[in-house]
Fold this sequence. Notes:
- The complex is a heterodimer of chains A (113) and B (112).
- In chain A, strands 2, 4, 5, 6, 9, 10 and 11 form a 7-stranded mixed sheet that branches. A 4-stranded antiparallel sheet of chain A has the order 1-3-8-7, with no helix packed on it.
- In chain A, a hairpin with a 2-residue loop joins strand 7 and strand 8 (74-79).
- Chain A has 113 residues and is mainly beta.
- Chain A is built from no helices and 11 strands.
- Chain B has 112 residues and is an all-beta fold.
- In chain B, strand 9 and strand 10 (101-102) form a beta hairpin.
- In chain B, 0% of the residues lie in helices and 53% in strands.
- Chain A binds chain B through residues 31, 33, 35, 41-43, 45, 48, 50, 55-56, 91, 95, 97-102, 104-107, and chain B through 32, 34, 36, 42-46, 49, 51, 89, 93, 95-105.
Amino acid sequence: DAGVTQTPRHEVAEKGQTIILKCEPVSGHNDLFWYRQTKIQGLELLSYFRSKSLMEDGGAFKDRFKAEMLNSSFSTLKIQPTEPKDSAVYLCASSLGTGNTLYFGAGTRLSVL
Amino acid sequence: QQQVRQSPQSLTVWEGETAILNCSYEDSTFDYFPWYHQFPGESPALLIAIRPVSNKKEDGRFTIFFNKREKKFSLHIADSQPGDSATYFCAASPPGYQNFYFGKGTSLTVIP
């Protein structure tokens, strides 16, 4: 069974660019999460979908971050425009639902110059 | 307001000692408490989890102690091994839907 797949693994962008990160959850999982990970802040929730419906949108990230779930097996996270402070690892995770294990993808390491 | 607080930020123990990592939470309705570990260059992965119906959960050398009244839970790693060196995250989840609130992590180093 394939795990959570994220692409690309690394992304370098210049300030002001638009970047799109991609995620394929584990087949059959209903819940999908986007997190940002930094050493200082740890894991911060960006978006949470249940059965393709947006359940929670991290308040601090709403202005330049937009996650979409185009179908049950594919999600994107758009950052527009990028800023140097967005440099971080972006993790996608999925689970079957309430009370079930969260499975993380390998992450996308974003560097904004 | 931070929903889950974790301490210490970093911890160093000798091989064979018991490492103790602590977490507290704000919302008394939270009903699922997992611990994740993350090795350098890898993604977080579930280590062990507990629900409030019990106050202790064991899995080999790893034990969660849960105190519902004080809204605290801890991870004890017995007989720590160098291979346990990683960052450990606690989390909490409310009932009904599964958004996770994560602590900021504890970086554990086990010295041989």
